[in-house]
Structures are given as structure tokens and as C-alpha cells.
Design a protein that fits this description.
By secondary structure, this protein is an alpha+beta fold. It has helices spanning 2-18, 25-38, 106-124, 132-145; strands at residues 42-43, 56-59, 62-64, 79-88, 91-100, 149-150, 156-158, 165-169, 186-189, 192-194, 200-202, 209-211, 217-219, 222-225, 232-233. It has a five-stranded antiparallel sheet. Strands 1, 2, 4 and 5 form a four-stranded antiparallel sheet that branches. A three-stranded antiparallel sheet has the order 3-12-11, with no helix packed on it. A hairpin with a 6-residue loop joins strand 7 (156-158) and strand 8.
Length: 245
């Protein structure tokens, strides 16, 4: 899973660099398909419950599960969420990032920073003996203290040979909730944070979730290994390291 995580992270970062105004979200999907195949891996999302894309690409008020389309051009000032899942030698890696394409309003930058810090705070709680709820609570408390809101409809999850394993890892809840974490468990922590209200709805494509108020959303995700000691991020960026306190 270290290898599948590292691959997912590398592809996530390559795709973030690939983004530019004028290309379509299908172009990004095709690049994901190419990079995944080049590595001898498979998309963990393609065909999952019928999902048609090789990655999820969601823009602005789209929260998660957007599908690459030849009709959707990326524009300057878009906030693009890339969610990459790969299967390498039977094991999965799953990671997401939020990329502003060019300058975005200051409150959008705030949203992205809050979401990234919420993930860091969640990861810091991911220790053997802690309950999943401690992660959930840390994420929610921080996000709401910053004036943003937490999406309830989608949650993080265990990861292994399947995409969604136990336990669920909500981004909201009480510290005493959920199962206890044990060394060797691998979980995906993935806050989905809205600038406005928490409500989302799913578009008629049956996949793309959007905010009800039309305000932007951000999403970041790491695959994390629970150890006897500090949590190990299996999807680290080669460009920056996340500090674990
Ligand atoms: Mg995930």
C-alpha cells in the first residue's frame, strides 16, 4: 500500500501540474488514464458502481464525484478538485487535492487553507488506541471555527483491496464515536468543506455532488497508515511535506 499510495500521490501531483485554462475535464481524465496505465496500475474508480471516469474531477460548487466531460472547459479562476484512486498489484491508494487555477477570491483561498489544515488536524489524531471519532471531531471543530461547513453525505473510509472498507471516517462527530484504531489499519481521511452551508445535492448524471447554495467547496484526502507511533501518510506529496505534530 506504500507503493500504491505513492503512485496515487505522484499522479495527483502530475495532474495538478497538467491543469490549465482551456483544456477540458475529459483531457484531464485521459491524462489520468494514460499515467495510470503507464505505471501498470488501474483506476480504482473506473467502473466502481458504474462510475465512467478514471478520476473524479469537480469544479467550484461541485463537491465530489465530477466526471470528465468534453464540454467542460477549465477556466482561469476555477477551483478544481482532483480525486485519484489507483489499484497497484491488487492494493489501493486514494488521494485528493484542491487546485486553484490562477487567482481566486481571498475567501476561496481561505476555504482551501482551512480544508488542508483540517486534514492535517485529522491525521494528527490518527493514532493507535484513539477512536475514529477523534479524527472526525478534530476536523469538524476546526472547520466550523473558521466559518466554513462540513459536508455530511460523504465520508472517509478504510482502504485495502477494496475502495470502501470499514471503518467509515466521518468529518463530523464526537471524540468517543466509532471504533478504536489499531496499528496496521489504513484509512482515508478526506474532509469536504463548503464555504457556505453544508447541504449538497446530486446532479442528474447521478454522480456529481454540488452545493445547494452554489458556493464553492474544497476536498483534500490522504491515505493514512495507523502505526504504533505517528501516523504515516501513504500518499505524500513529493513537493511538500505535511507536518505531523
Ligand atoms: Mg476516498
Amino acid at each position: 500500500m506504500r507503493r500504491s499510495g505513492a503512485l496515487a500521490a505522484q499522479i495527483r501531483d502530475r495532474l495538478a501540474d497538467f491543469l490549465e485554462p482551456g483544456i477540458t475535464t475529459l483531457d484531464v481524465d485521459r491524462e489520468a488514464e494514460r499515467l495510470i496505465a503507464q505505471a501498470g496500475a488501474k483506476s480504482a474508480f473506473k467502473g466502481y458502481k458504474g462510475f465512467p471516469g478514471h478520476l473524479c474531477i469537480s469544479i467550484n460548487e461541485e463537491v465530489v464525484h465530477g466526471i470528465g466531460s468534453p464540454r467542460r472547459k477549465i477556466q482561469l479562476g476555477d477551483l478544481v478538485k482532483l480525486d485519484v484512486g489507483v489499484v497497484l498489484e491488487g492494493w489501493l491508494g486514494d488521494t485528493a487535492t484542491t487546485v486553484p487555477v490562477g487567482p481566486v477570491p481571498p475567501e476561496w483561498d481561505h476555504l482551501v487553507r482551512v480544508t488542508e489544515e483540517a486534514l492535517e488536524r485529522g491525521i494528527a489524531e490518527a493514532r493507535a488506541g484513539a477512536r475514529v471519532g477523534q479524527i472526525s471531531h478534530a476536523v469538524q471543530k476546526f472547520v466550523e471555527s473558521q466559518g466554513c461547513s462540513i459536508v455530511r453525505e460523504f465520508v472517509g473510509h478504510g482502504l485495502g483491496r477494496k475502495l470502501h472498507e470499514e471503518p467509515q471516517v466521518p468529518n463530523f462527530g464526537r471524540p468517543k464515536d466509532g471504533p478504536k484504531l489499531r496499528p496496521g489499519m489504513v484509512i482515508c481521511i478526506e474532509p469536504m468543506v463548503n464555504l457556505g452551508g453544508p447541504s449538497v445535492r446530486v446532479l442528474s448524471d447521478k454522480w456529481t455532488a454540488v452545493t445547494v447554495d452554489g458556493l464553492p467547496s474544497a476536498h483534500v484526502e490522504h491515505t493514512v497508515l495507523i502505526t504504533e507511533d505517528a501516523p504515516e501518510i501513504l500518499t505524500p506529496s513529493s513537493r511538500a511535506t505535511i507536518a505531523i505534530s
